[in-house]
Write a structure and sequence with these properties.
By secondary structure, the protein is α/β, with parallel strands linked by helices. The chain is 33% helix and 22% strand. It has two domains: 244 residues, Rossmann fold, CATH 3.40.50; 98 residues, Arc Repressor Mutant, subunit A (Orthogonal Bundle). The longest helix is centred in the middle third of the chain and has 18 residues. It starts with a strand and ends in a 5-residue tail after the last helix.
């Protein structure tokens, strides 16, 4: 499942995933576990619009159209509807004959991934009835099993739905429950834009992807970020495509020698005899405060830098005798050998 509020770029993201599978290349920096032919069935837009969107994605990722020969199939629901299930007058639900025809065509084309956009246009059921939506989900599972392919269903969010929450998907919960994976997209919020230095008027072009089947979403710096880009087509039109985006790292502005100085300062006794702490709640001693004061970075970036210093073994936590209390306190301590190695790399012109 792939879900998002309107205008968040879910169709552009689905197309990028389709091209990645067709080519066997991680276009949005997500691993491609199996490659092969991809069939994109857009049930809302006319074929011309689908072609424009695919062309924009090809340009955005530097892909020659000829590379997609025999690898990509495109269809529009306006030309050929794809109604998989209907509700009869007596209230019962049945699969339509097109389900078996679809399986046969998927096998004939040796399709590895079928993208259906949007799911709501693929049935005539009541989307708020769990038993009916479960019937549709089971039917799509049967198609996937019989055809030996993966199926990505693109779905809308309910009004007020929040990314990272499985209940954000519109309609009955049976659909998300039946999905092996559910990805939710949302635009960058105000706080994240300030953290990353993105102007308010531009934050709508930055999209976060979360696993909607997990209760705990990653912190902003660890999240998967995407960027919607306006791509100029040969005819002069501009169409959105999506690509992976990574927040700028404060390390890029920090030389290796400056980074070594910072680690040494973080891991040495302060003038008051105390040591810097790894804990945010140790107000006045948290190492992130020194990092922010030294580099001008945000709190999230300071957290990321501390984590990087711990991962590289440049910093560690050790007990030390505090002048303000009788029992030992925990504080930061640097490894002189790692710092010496950083200074050696600085002489060779490397960055952290």
């Amino acid at each position: 499942m792939l879900g998002a509020p309107g205008g968040t770029g879910k169709t552009a993201y689905a197309i990028a995933i389709g091209l990645a599978v067709a080519l066997g290349r991680p276009l949005v920096e997500e691993p491609v576990h199996s490659t092969g032919a991809v069939w994109i069935y857009n049930l809302e837009d006319p074929r011309e619009e689908l072609l424009r969107r695919v062309q924009a994605a090809l340009i955005a990722h530097g892909i020659r159209p000829a590379a997609m020969t025999g690898r990509l199939y495109l269809d529009s629901g306006r030309d050929q509807p794809l109604i998989m299930a209907v509700r009869l007058p007596d209230g019962s639900t049945v699969a339509t004959p097109i389900a078996d025809a679809l399986i046969a065509e998927l096998i004939r084309r040796e399709v590895r991934l079928l993208i259906v956009d949007p799911f709501v246009k693929s049935h005539r059921l009541e989307e708020n009835r769990n038993e009916q939506v479960d019937f549709a989900a089971t039917l799509w599972s049967r198609v996937a099993d019989a055809a030996g392919c993966a199926i990505l269903l693109v779905h809308h969010f309910r009004k007020g739905g929040v990314a990272g929450d499985a209940d954000a998907f519109r309609g009955a919960s049976a659909l998300v429950d039946a999905a092996r994976a559910a990805v939710a997209l949302r635009s960058m919020d105000d706080g994240e834009a300030k953290r990353f230095g993105v102007p308010e008027e531009e934050r709508w072009f930055y999209v976060r992807a979360d696993n909607a089947k997990l209760n705990l979403a990653p912190r902003p710096l660890d999240a998967t970020w995407l960027q919607l880009r306006s791509i100029a087509l040969p005819n002069g039109d501009h169409v959105q495509a999506i690509a992976r985006w990574r927040p700028a790292s404060v390390f890029r502005e920090l030389s290796m020698n400056d980074s070594a100085d910072l680690v040494e300062q973080l891991g040495s006794p302060r003038d008051d005899g105390e040591r810097w702490s790894a804990r945010k709640q140790d107000f006045g001693r948290w190492g992130g405060e020194l990092i922010m004061a030294t580099t001008g970075c945000s709190e999230e970036q300071a957290r990321a830098m501390l984590a990087a210093y711990f991962a590289s073994k440049a910093l560690r936590i050790a007990d030390y005798p505090s002048p303000k209390q009788r029992k030992p306190r925990k504080g930061l301590e640097h490894d002189p050998q790692v710092v010496a190695g950083m200074r050696l790399h600085a002489q060779e012109g490397e960055h952290p």
